[in-house]
Amino acid sequence: KIPEATIMRLSVYSRYLTEIDRKGIITISSGDIAEGVGVSPAQVRKDLAYFGEFGIRGVGYNVKDLHRNILKILGLSNEWSVCLVGLGNLGLALSTYRGFRERGFIITSIFDNDPEKIGIVIDGIEVLPVDLLEEIVPQRHTQIGAITVPSSSAQIIADKLVKSGVKAILNFAPVVLNVPPEVELRNVDLSVNLEVLTFNLGGKMA
Amino acid sequence: KIPEATIMRLSVYSRYLTEIDRKGIITISSGDIAEGVGVSPAQVRKDLAYFGEFGIRGVGYNVKDLHRNILKILGLSNEWSVCLVGLGNLGLALSTYRGFRERGFIITSIFDNDPEKIGIVIDGIEVLPVDLLEEIVPQRHTQIGAITVPSSSAQIIADKLVKSGVKAILNFAPVVLNVPPEVELRNVDLSVNLEVLTFNLGGKMA
Ligand SMILES: NC(=O)c1ccc[n+]([C@@H]2O[C@H](COP(=O)([O-])OP(=O)(O)OC[C@H]3O[C@@H](n4cnc5c(N)ncnc54)[C@H](O)[C@@H]3O)[C@@H](O)[C@H]2O)c1
Ligand SMILES: NC(=O)c1ccc[n+]([C@@H]2O[C@H](COP(=O)([O-])OP(=O)(O)OC[C@H]3O[C@@H](n4cnc5c(N)ncnc54)[C@H](O)[C@@H]3O)[C@@H](O)[C@H]2O)c1
Questions:
Q1: What is the span of the domain harbouring residue A57?
Q2: Distance B86 CA to ligand 2 centre (A)
Q3: How many domains does chain B have?
Q4: Domain shared by A56 and A115, yes or no
Q5: DSSP label of B156
Q6: By the CB < 8 Å criterion, does B77 face chain A?
Q7: pLDDT in tens, chain B (206 residues)
Q8: In a mutagenesis test of the A interface, which of B152, B192, B204, B205 is the best target, namely the one with the most A β-carbons within 10 Å?
């Protein structure tokens, strides 16, 4: 099994390669990638080795080839249709974040249950009543649902998303959701990022 | 060196232990923890083994002891003072998220450069002009800065935070920041979480 941290680093390498490719650079070494993203060259080589032989020893990696390979490994060769539920502060920040579209994640529907939110248009997508979710999501061939509603509503929304056929759920509500095993579920808690920082500070502040 | 994924899992174990402790449960096995957070019992034991012997073979772990130990490892035995810069959609979602305070991260100051935002009060904290950052942040003994401004302003804000003595920066702007080596920096890109999902779907959708 490939460690999750390796997948997350692959995603960071690919962003860096986008920048390098834009600058017209043809080949790159594991040392350059390592410096660009803040890891060790050995870590870059170890991560890539899980997926096969990409570079030529002594010459480095072809930027375009390596980038295309990584995008394929991450499942990003095509676009993904994403449905966002809950247009509160967090939902609004995610719906307006250009980084998603750049990586091929297109928000194709937004739902809420607050009449004040229904009818708002974000990037051409109109906020719809949550009661229409199970009808609209399959129509727009949506594979991923993002949950940004309060914890009290999160399981109800997860059930609706599963019924409408999504294959994966990104959950921001701080609650443990039950979804069937064939649906991929990922919980995001931003305070975990702060805790990695305080762990790293642990030695320094002592 | 302890893998970052281990630290992130420790943070998730600790949240689960908070819930278990609240229910009055005295001892717990690695199997129970594993089931509660969705990893394998071997992974729980491996993660904890980095930090010493906590449980008694055949009996399990004392919930309160294990929890206190994990909080100490994560550097959460005390509260941390956090400064938030940029009260946009994302900044607003972070400033109102109760999960931070529950883990001991207290937002003690908020800055923006938009006159419409200055003077807004969130949870008793008044949004101040960003020009006051280098004066206020040291006064409030702030150790951590969170950057939620557009990419174009992120480096300027990072420099201000470093000058005011913060020890760690959590950056949400999609740009590579330069900070001195003694300052811990962590970049968050939420699309990385979507890419872990699409990687996991890779095999299933093929
Ligand atoms: N994981 C993190 O780090 C993190 C950070 C910030 C917020 N959050 C969480 O994200 C969620 C959203 O936070 P927020 O600050 O945007 O909250 P918010 O209250 O501003 O927004 C919630 C939105 O969901 C809508 N809603 C409520 N019930 C609904 C339902 N049944 N169907 C459809 N829409 C519904 C509301 O109308 C509102 O627009 C919360 O659960 C919060 O705890 C998590
Ligand atoms: N990492 C992710 O996954 C993710 C997700 C969403 C947004 N973002 C990023 O987070 C940042 C904020 O996003 P948003 O949607 O809240 O944007 P926004 O435009 O709604 O908010 C930005 C805020 O920063 C303030 N600001 C601008 N320049 C400033 C300066 N020099 N000093 C102080 N304040 C300043 C603005 O007045 C505004 O209030 C952006 O960089 C965005 O790309 C990242």
A1: 4-73
A2: 6
A3: 2
A4: no
A5: H
A6: no
A7: 888 889 999 999 999 999 999 999 999 999 999 998 888 999 999 999 999 988 888 889 999 999 999 999 999 999 999 999 999 999 999 999 999 999 999 999 999 999 999 999 999 999 999 999 999 999 999 999 999 999 999 999 999 999 999 999 999 998 889 999 999 999 998 999 999 999 999 865 54
A8: B192
